[in-house]
Amino acid sequence: MEIEVKADGRRARGDESRALVLHEAVNLASVVGLHGLTFGSLALRTGRSKAGIQILFSNKEKLQLETVAFARGMFADAVIRPALSTQRGLPRLKKLFGNWIRYATEPLFEGGCFMVANLAEIDSLRGPLHDALFADHASWISVLAGEIRFAVEAQEILDTDPEVAAFAVDAILCATNTSVRAGDANAIARARRALDIFLVPVGV
Amino acid sequence: MEIEVKADGRRARGDESRALVLHEAVNLASVVGLHGLTFGSLALRTGRSKAGIQILFSNKEKLQLETVAFARGMFADAVIRPALSTQRGLPRLKKLFGNWIRYATEPLFEGGCFMVANLAEIDSLRGPLHDALFADHASWISVLAGEIRFAVEAQEILDTDPEVAAFAVDAILCATNTSVRAGDANAIARARRALDIFLVPVGV
Q: ipTM of the predicted structure?
């Protein structure tokens, strides 16, 4: 019993350390990219020992994969989950866009959108890291496509191919993230107008 | 006279070396980003001495700036100039898209689009490198906006804000470059359909 309590206590401390390190890893990777993640730089940023961090994550690829998973959770908490209580279709799409714009302008991650910072770097590689990142990207686009399909079927917006429109919406959001980071004061207004081209309400 | 000839010969050889090194620099930066450019890696790739390359470019920032300028020239030669003999407006836009798609699928640069590989990396920085890269990006978007404006005024396509539409078209092209690099077989077909949403011919 005593031993079990101790083991649980160690596990709880381990989970806390892991979350703290992963939070820093996501921030660092949003700035320098997943390739720039090193045990040494994480030790510097968290004040923990490099050896301790290495024990938590075994090797760089595992650290990168856990970082991608942690970023996915943060993105879902900030952008997707707060929209799930909003009515499906056009209202939820608008809520998702609003959440996304807040996510890009009050950045959740130090370097802005984690996905944008890493997709172009990872695109030419093959392997588990590429697969995890592109699966997350595809899953976000399918969330958008699902709501666009719903909005078309409910005749809230003019007929459009949901997959193509979702791809274009994400492309516009990604480019907007880059414009925001580059200090373009017009970035958000332009993004809203560009999104409007894709989502034309019926009867307008 | 003899001295002048010698000097010209040296300059010609210098220009040739510079172009050869810059060609490799553009390729390398399209894969690892402008920050990954080092005199050492360029020496390895060109078989030239590191010291010789350092003499040509003085310092890393000058090398990066010349690399951006060289990439701009290559992009203009591959995508923009071959479209200038095509009629302005919708025909020239279609020619530009075709040239861009060839540029993304038969990549001119080893790592795909030079701009996409570097914009997200450079966006948060400030200074001459950021300014040069974002000026080139803005200049490409204004080429697109100019043709869209022409097409709207000639009533070839339905009325649209040329700046917003050009921004969205570039966003779609950038996202398509990433999809192509990631091995998405559907990337080009989807891009063409997404571009069609923006450029609706009058009377369709």
A: 0.86
